[in-house]
Amino acid sequence: MVSVTTIINSISYILIAFVGISLLVSSIMIGIITNISVLERTKEIGILRAIGASKGDVSRVFNAETIIEGLAAGLIGIGITQLLLFPINIFMENISNIHIKAHLNPWAALILVAFSVFLTFLAGLILTHNAASKDSVIALRSE
Known about the structure:
The chain starts with a helix and ends with a helix. The longest helix has 42 residues, at 55-96. The radius of gyration is 22 Å and the shape is elongated. The chain has helices spanning 2-40, 42-50, 55-96, 106-132, 136-141. It is mostly helical and 143 residues long. It is built from 5 helices and no strands.
């Protein structure tokens, strides 16, 4: 029994490492997407600043976008997990003849979505500050 526990713990640590790596990579990708969004919308930022939008207003626009991206990604991930639980449960029951059903705790799902929103917000925070700091005249001259 001790060896089975050791194997399960080892597999759990490996899976946690994969999750950590995927979170890091996804945070970098969100930062890249936000950077591309800022670069493509430089003229829009210039127009907003020229008509009187403060740096905080421009920053809030991009922060809202990253939060919405994180919320959508978290909800899609939870939805896919819920959809995959049914075939996985059936497959595991057929292979092992154990009638234990895997399920996702609603509180855990809520925490995962909140964590996704937080990570996307954090990944885009520096870039939104850079977008808000753009000079309106220079931003309008771009393109």
